Amino acid sequence: MPHTALIFNPAAKGARAGGLYSEIRRLVGPSVRIFRTSRQGEARSISRWAVREGFERIIASGGDGTINEIVNGIAGSDVALGILPTGTMNVFATELGIPRNIDDAWAVIGRGEERKVDLPIANGHAFVQLAGIGLDAQAVKETSWEFKQTLGPLSYLVSAAQITARKPPRLVAVGDDGATREGSFILIGNGRYYGGPFPVFKDARIDDRQLNVLIFKNLGYLDIMRYLAGILRGSHVTMPDVEYFLTHELHVSSDEEVPIEVDGEVLGNLPAHITFHPKPLRVLAPPCPRAPAIHPPTPPLPEP
Question: Which of 26, 74, 203, 253 has the most CB within a 10 Å radius?
């Protein structure tokens, strides 16, 4: 196997971390060097060091937050990213078709198949799957670690419900067409999925250098319920108070203090400028599934 490092985030599995580490150690064997993180930001530092030391592959064992840190350590390099989806949320792995079972995910890494993935950059910070401005970023910001441990992903919904009682911010977005669009919160997708197996950006591709932007105009509790129902039905992009468009770059501003999150991590506050890194990310993943071939119907046989 090429010179490989594996960065393991014990916090991703809490009490199960010890057993999971032993399982991963058995799985990958002695040729892979394993690093365990102990604090936020450490995966980024380790991956930067591994790039300088000439590692050819870096495996992320954790969730989307761990992947985001590693990606920011290897962006612009020729290092390939592998994924063992051992976190609570593994949206990027779902996007790429990487199995949740770690033996099957390791088999994907072992086959060495690669995909080149676009790498959006928000205010100098890379992300792979999604960014959010307003409601979801505020929910991430206000949800405590203890609350997340108690309720899991439901904790974000509880926080979001509390936020909808406040006056919504006014967000101004400008894409590469120069048009000015306004709304109360914004989601930006590189891939199809957001928050789990929900195809919020159902036609998005992670290799077309296009940002998929959803602008939600309203932010009341009933509005959020409508939007969620529309997402579950796949009809949200047709709602009159939702705008969906594609752009190569995006600038978002507000007169208020509004947070932005990328891959589930709060990045800071607006303004935000989002574009693409000139060099795509190399990811060890199954090939992109091809659409089934469409064959013309077989003509009927002539009657005898």
Answer: 74
- Cβ atoms 64, 36 nearer than 8 A: no
Give the residue from 291, 288, 189, 169 showing the smallest Cα distance to 237: 189
Which is it for the CA torsion 48, 50, 53, 58, positive or negative? negative
Task: Give domain 4-112's CATH number out of 2.10.109.10, 3.40.50.10330, 3.40.1350.10, 3.30.450.20.
Answer: 3.40.50.10330
Domain parsing of the chain, residue ranges: 4-112, 125-277
- Sign of the alpha-carbon dihedral angle for 164, 153, 244, 247: positive
Q: Which CATH number does 125-277 carry?
A: 2.60.200.40
State the average pLDDT over residues 126-132: 96
Distance set, CA 81 to CA 89, 124, 204, 257 (Å): 18, 20, 21, 35
- Region of poorest pLDDT, from 36-40, 43-47, 224-228, 240-244: 224-228
Q: Taking the model in full, what pTM does it have?
A: 0.88
- Of 42, 41, 70, give the one whose Cα is nearest residue 57: 70
Q: Which two tokens stand for residue 162?
A: 């509390």
What is d(CA 304, CA 301) in angstroms, rounded to the nearest whole number?
9
Residue range 148-203, pLDDT digits in tens: 555 555 556 656 767 776 889 999 999 999 999 999 999 999 999 988 788 999 88
First to last CA, the chain: 63
* Residue 99 predicted with pLDDT over 80: yes
Output the CA angle 234-94-20, nearest 5 degrees. 145
| Residue among 149, 130, 132 at smallest CA distance from 141 | 132
Residue 295's pLDDT is what?
Answer: 35
Using DSSP, state whether 266 is helix, strand or coil.
strand
